[in-house]
Design brief:
Blueprint (H helix, E strand, L loop, with lengths): L9 H4 L2 H16 L4 H4 L7 H17 L2 H24 L5 H14 L2 H4 L7 H15 L16 H14 L11 H11 L4 H20 L2
């Protein structure tokens, strides 16, 4: 995931006591036989919930509804807690290890905040982040390594296009046809194509609902 955690404080990540208190209900529900179905879940069976809850968060963001966003972020967090419980049941890792991992990564990749390295602007922060990330993941030898295969196709196409452009690779023009127009547009757009398309479809849906009288 290519997120830039500029300005993120580890203080919020390390508040384990408060986090434990708020996740206790979910933990009991999963670990102590709240639902038999919960006890039968696996990493694989939980995959659809990750996608569904993440998209419901995006819907709430698009709607600008803080109350709904608060609920959906909680549901997404619940999926993370659920994964940690399955992992703990299978003796793989714990919720504390998840939080420790992200805390350590934030500290490690922000030496200008938690270390002695200087960064005069955001560009230098990003450069430092990418350099440290490259050291941490030497197995990634291609500029395209690390792009999630399960991303929506349009979003994945945009990520690939940006990395090719950054590497100085000149792409051959796509073959003629409807798909070529889409790919050309993706290559030329600097905006978040997935969000742009989602916003456009929302307008189309609104117009159609008005047309059909709903």
């Amino acid at each position: 995931m290519e997120l830039n955690f500029v300005g993120v404080s580890c203080y919020h990540v390390t508040r384990m006591k408060a986090f434990d208190e708020r996740s206790d209900v979910a933990n009991q529900k999963i670990a102590h036989g709240g639902w038999r179905r919960h006890q039968e879940q696996t990493f694989e069976s939980l995959r659809p919930y990750v996608v569904e809850e993440a998209h419901e968060v995006l819907d709430a963001v698009d709607e600008g509804n803080d109350e709904e966003l608060l609920e959906e972020l909680g549901d997404l967090l619940y999926v993370v807690i659920f994964y940690s419980q399955v992992a703990q049941r299978e003796k793989r890792f714990t919720l504390e290890q998840i939080l420790d991992t992200v805390r350590e990564k934030l500290i490690r990749r922000h030496p200008h905040v938690f270390g002695d390295k200087k960064a005069e602007n955001v560009e230098e922060v990003v450069t430092n982040w990418n350099a440290i990330k490259k050291q941490e993941k030497p197995e990634r030898t291609s500029a395209l390594d690390g792009i999630p295969l399960n991303l929506p196709a349009l979003m994945r196409a945009q990520k690939i296009s940006r990395r090719l452009k950054k590497a100085g690779y000149s792409q051959p023009p796509p073959e003629e046809g409807p798909l070529s127009k889409i790919l050309t547009a993706v290559e030329e757009m600097e905006a978040d194509v997935e969000s742009e398309l989602r916003a456009h479809l929302k307008q189309v849906e609104k117009a159609f609902r008005l047309w059909e009288g709903c």
